[in-house]
Amino acid sequence: MQLSVSDTGEAYIYLVLSEPQNLRKRNIEIIKEISEKGFTTIVITTNEPYNVLRKDYEKSGINLNKVHFIDAITKYAIGREPDGAINCTFINNPSNLTDMGIAVTELLKTIEGNKVWVLINSVNSMLIHISSANLTKFIHFIASKLKILDISGVFLAVEKGIEPSVLSQLQSFVDDVVEDGK
Among 30, 68, 95, 162, who pairs with 129 as Cys (CB 3.0-4.6 Å)? Predict the structure, then answer.
């Protein structure tokens, strides 16, 4: 899968739609492509815990010094933050959109330069914890913040896993939609 990861710093926001069985693979491909261009990535994860993603990225040869995580699932699942986490901010639960938004804002302040991408993994898993209306408000907030700051982003979602009305709203917030295998 090829995103337009521009070396010129031109910001672009994608909605990447994947088959359910390919979601993890797409995530890794996207992070690898972004990292290879020298960008830092902030991964907001409500789908896979930080330690699982970190292992997947390591196996794929991704430079983990350039990946920061906002993990909204680990603390929710085990009741505490794991020891030894590197470049990770833990959120109490996936429905806490305020803390997620604050974490993104704080991380963006601390990362040097404008060579940053934000990836949400995944839109569908967020719908397990919040309403469609709250999801679209949050995605709109993140997309607007990224556009204002001239930062690129990717919203990763399962193809055919989102109600058509929600999908239409999400499509209106992004510059391009990339479907699995296209």
Answer: 95
